[in-house]
């Protein structure tokens, strides 16, 4: 197995620039949200067709607006990079799960320390769960604690709870550090379920999009422009940083 099959820094920079270009769809994912989304999609209980997966990458709210490519070469490069990460996550979690780590942004503070920004990644993972809908209910009922961080940082109810919890820096860091273990455990849970279905002769039908029960994640309140500095003062573009506290 190739032990470094994920995006290179240069590929991340290319995707970042593409997703934040002025003509990009208003509600397309950024790189870290895309990584969380792909992780949930490849980890979940049901097969997701690429066409169904991709439409929510470009339009997280409605799944209707398409990507804006300059030419065929750019389209092939962008799509190739997305599928590369899809395959890398699936391969790593199946063959060498200990090597998996989520790709998240960090914010550098004045003292030189770095704070992980995990809300965008969790929002992406939450989107991946939403595509599967009720298929995820078994895990939610049997081991609800596994998804507690994802739901806390990646859903409207979670954001409200975060305001009440008023977490300190160590609690926030612990939540970030635990994301990798969360992914490995969730993937292992559904992998075992799928293998049992195969042994019992159950056939899994892929999700094609006709009845996808996605409930899009929306933040309330005014929106800043995609390329405007975040109101928190980090110096990053708004969508790179808008949920970090």
Task: Name some characteristics of this structure.
245 residues; 11 helices; mainly alpha; two-stranded antiparallel ribbon; 3% strand
Question: What does this protein structure show overall?
Answer:
There is one protein chain. With 245 residues, this protein is mainly alpha-helical. The protein is built from 11 helices and 2 strands; from the N terminus they run H-H-H-H-E-E-H-H-H-H-H-H-H. It has a two-stranded antiparallel ribbon. Strand 1 (105-108) and strand 2 (114-117) form a beta hairpin. Helix 7 crosses helix 8. The radius of gyration is 18 Å and the shape is globular. Mean pLDDT is 83; it is low at 207-227.
Low-confidence stretches: 207-227
- Major beta sheet, specifics? 2 strands, antiparallel
Q: Outline, from the CA principal axes?
A: globular
Give the class from helix and strand content and strand pairing. mainly alpha
Tell me the β content.
under 5%
Strand order of the largest sheet: 1-2
N- and C-termini, Cα separation: 38 Å
- Helix fraction, binned, reads 40-55%
* Radius of gyration, CA atoms, in whole angstroms: 18 Å
According to DSSP, the number of beta strands is 2
Order of helices and strands: HHHHEEHHHHHHH
Number of helices: 11
Q: Quote the average pLDDT.
A: 83
In short, what is this structure?
The chain is mainly alpha-helical and 245 residues long. The chain has helices at 9-19, 31-43, 50-58, 72-95, 119-132, 137-142, 148-154, 156-165, 169-177, 179-199, 238-241; strands at 105-108, 114-117.
